[in-house]
Design brief:
5-stranded parallel sheet; 20 helices; alpha/beta; 8 strands; about 10% strand; globular
Length: about 450
């Protein structure tokens, strides 16, 4: 059994995850990842050391995003990783156990505890989510006739993804061999577009129409994408007519996804609609206690009360604080006091604030809706459809990122300040005159912000 008793153990787990998740070959692991040595963890920053400069460049270019992502998976909070060269440390590295002064906290702490499976057993039920929980459990037991489709909505971080994962886990356990497809709507869209470009839409159709259960996260993402909506409509109908399980989640009720087609909105609303709300104080206490139990971590009642009082609207943040407190104790022997919790909450809340969205992502999202390649939007081409998509992209970039007009113009092949102003003004005027167009633009902005 692997014990996560030091930063070295955590990094080994990170490497193992990288190999599995990103399909990194054995030789690549041995050359690039295994030789890296953990040096220290300070707050949300981790330092790793390599022995030569050229390796650092390759690691930063190819592997750093993977490493940071898996540190986040294991520790529960975003981590900034810096890769240094041995000579920059200033003195010979101490053994990792001396650097972090860590003794094993709990010899039964296993790697699996750091990536807990989402099940119904570890979902904390309260008045804010009891309907969604009961419906999800019934669906997992194939008692879905009166709930089909089940549409669960609520803000980010309140447990929608947990419930989808729990349904998948329960059905796989109770019905071996069942064909369950659990996928984010963004991935569904990308798969469909790829099937078109690869000329194998039939394979795509067969995959989804053969599902016994279709679980789609963030279904609002398909809003405004006409081809994707059309395809999903037919898949939905076929599965529904065969009485297959359909569960969808969204950040808002179906009736408020304005730019989605009426026929899809009607179907999304035809079954059971259940919302999940921010947890009440008692539920927040139970969430903290349960998370600490799963980590074999003791937190005093006053610290639990402090966390539950300060964090009220996001379960992911609440669990992230407990995970970070545990990591600090495990790695650096910092005991979970109110003062420590205060600092961790400050870090967690900051880490979960929306980060600036890349212009590339916005242009790509607008391009998918208008079926325009990003390169065409950035080009000098002025056909009507390209110009319209370009103006919408400029408007969304300014709305979401707040970039100066000159900077936005530079993203579109050096267009000048007046061109950007004109594009933004044109979109505003059209939004005022055309409610359907306004809904499309507003949904683009919502989807971009929801997927930061």
């Amino acid at each position: 059994m692997n014990s996560l008793s030091s930063l070295a153990d955590i990094y080994k787990c990170v490497v193992d995850n990288c190999v599995k998740v990103y399909d990194i070959s054995g030789p690549a692991r041995e050359l690039w990842l295994d030789p890296l040595e953990p040096v220290k963890m300070e707050g949300n920053k981790i330092t790793l050391a390599t022995n030569v400069e050229f390796k650092r460049e390759t690691l930063n270019n190819l592997y750093l995003p993977y490493i940071e992502e898996q540190f986040k998976v294991i520790l529960g909070v975003p981590m900034k990783v810096e890769i240094v060269v041995d000579s920059e440390i200033g003195s010979p590295k101490q053994p990792i156990s001396e650097i972090i002064n860590a003794e094993p906290v709990n010899k039964e702490m296993d790697i699996i505890d750091r990536k807990i499976t989402y099940t119904f057993d570890n979902f904390i039920v309260g008045p804010s989510n009891n309907l969604a929980f009961a419906a999800a459990k019934a669906v997992s037991q194939k008692q879905h006739e009166k709930y089909n489709p089940l549409f669960i909505y609520g803000d980010s971080g309140l447990g929608k993804t947990h419930l989808l994962s729990a349904i998948q886990h329960e059905m796989q356990k109770n019905y071996p061999g069942i064909n369950i497809i659990y996928i984010p709507a963004e991935t569904f869209t990308n798969e469909f577009l790829h099937s078109i470009s690869a000329n194998n839409v039939e394979v795509f159709d067969e995959k989804y129409r053969s599902a016994d259960a279709l679980l789609i996260d963030d279904i609002q993402f398909i809003a405004g994408k006409e081809q994707t909506e059309e395809k999903f409509f037919h898949i939905f109908n076929e599965l529904y007519n065969q009485n297959k399980v359909i569960v969808l989640t969204s950040d808002r009720p179906a009736k408020e996804i304005k730019s989605i087609s009426d026929r899809l909105r009607t179907r999304f609303s035809s079954g059971l609609i259940a919302d999940v709300k921010p947890p009440e104080y008692e539920t927040r206490l139970a969430i903290i206690q349960r998370k600490a139990e799963l980590l074999h971590f003791n937190i005093s009642e006053d610290v639990i009360d402090y966390i539950a009082t300060k964090l009220k609207s996001n379960i992911r943040q609440i669990e992230g604080v407990v995970t970070k407190l545990n990591a600090l104790y495990m790695v650096s022997q910092v005991k979970p006091t109110i003062a420590v919790a205060q600092n961790v909450i400050k870090d967690i809340v900051t880490d979960h604030q929306p980060i600036p969205v890349t212009v590339d992502k916005i242009i790509s999202e607008v391009g998918k809706i208008y079926n325009i390649e990003p390169e065409d939007m950035r080009s000098q081409r002025r056909t009507a459809n390209i110009s319209q998509a370009r103006k919408v992209a400029i408007y969304v970039i300014q709305d979401v990122t707040g970039l100066p007009y000159e900077a936005i113009g530079n993203e579109f092949n050096g267009r000048d300040h007046s061109t950007v102003v004109y594009a933004i003004k044109s979109v505003k005027e059209e939004m005022e005159k055309d409610s359907s167009f306004r809904s499309v633009v507003e949904d683009i902005i919502k989807n971009i912000k929801a997927n930061q």
